[in-house]
Here is the input.
Amino acid sequence: MLEFASGNSSQVNSAAAMRECLEKAVGGDGAGVDVLLIHATIGHNFNELLTAAREAYPKASIVGCTGSGVIHSEGVTEAMRALAVMTISGPEVAVGFRDGLNRANGRDLAAAAAAELRDALDGVNAVALFTASFDVTGDEIIAGIEDVFGPDVPIFGGAAADNGKAKGSFQFHDNAVSEHSLFLIGMADDSLEYAWVSHHGSNPIGEPFEVTASDGGHVIELDGQPAWGQVMARLGLPADTTTDQTLPIAGMGIELPDGEQVDYDNSHMLRVPLETDGDGGFYLPTTVPVGTRLNLMQRDEDKIFAGVERMMERLNDKVAGREIVAVLQADCMARGRLTFDRVLKDEIIAKMQVPLVGDNPVPWLGVYGYSEYCPIGGRNEFHSYTTSLFPVLRRQSAG
Here is the structure.
């Protein structure tokens, strides 16, 4: 039976921060820990973090990634040196990892990591997935995992991030640090069930663009014109504006079927442009076939906060009184209350943690990344700009 624990630290010394996290999580005794999941901001010394983790947990599989902030059971920390971890202990957990991820090989690489996981662990019934943020095709990564486990195994996680500069991100595997990798954590505990929910709170504005030339996630033309210039013209910005300058305002929406709109509490699925090609096109992190209609989306703060309350109502209905043994969270750095040119996140986090777990010391770990993996309705999906939650529940019939 799997057991979970979590810890966090704001210490600036990376080794000391890791030791504090581990002490909070399991009292310093890592003998029974099988997987350690790390979320860190990019100011930390990653080698020192991993060395301290390995010294404490010599037998554990160590994985993790960077974000623009970390979320933990005490709230959120966005300092340049912030750290949070979750430990998973028990025989029903394993890890799959692959390096060298790019837009073209996501399906094959994810399938290889999933096969490694399948060979290490029978009966996988949930997968936590974390990937690089750039040069990825999220729907192809999901497809690769489903090639091995089928579409009914829920996939949850996020795409790593930096400090909002959109320059790169880092992933960890044992003692190594990578910028172009993915890792999977598979769980196969029959006493566990899973719930999930996600929400963004943005509205479509204006008429949709039509994709008239594309290649995978490379959007080359919209309405017969260079794609990025079309988007910038709609925003009233120069065509040479960079994607790091438009992260909060240039989300692209794809309209959902009516049934999924109800489940998602939003009319559109969002995609975030993270790179341009230098020739007038841009890249979205999923495939975008010719004929796709893309709406420019506008952040609506009132809708974000009202949507969080409705989201938690839906999630509590799914939890239905069962014991929550852990919560994983993947979140967008742009969600929260915009004040003095800064997005303040404590309020929105409290609106999730208090209704779901109250004062109970439930292990909780989340990261502020560039995109999220979370099921919607009955299928696995890749999102951007969302809050996505994945509570791990103990079955009521479990002994």
Observations:
- Residues 3-198+305-394 form one domain.
- The longest strand covers residues 202-215.
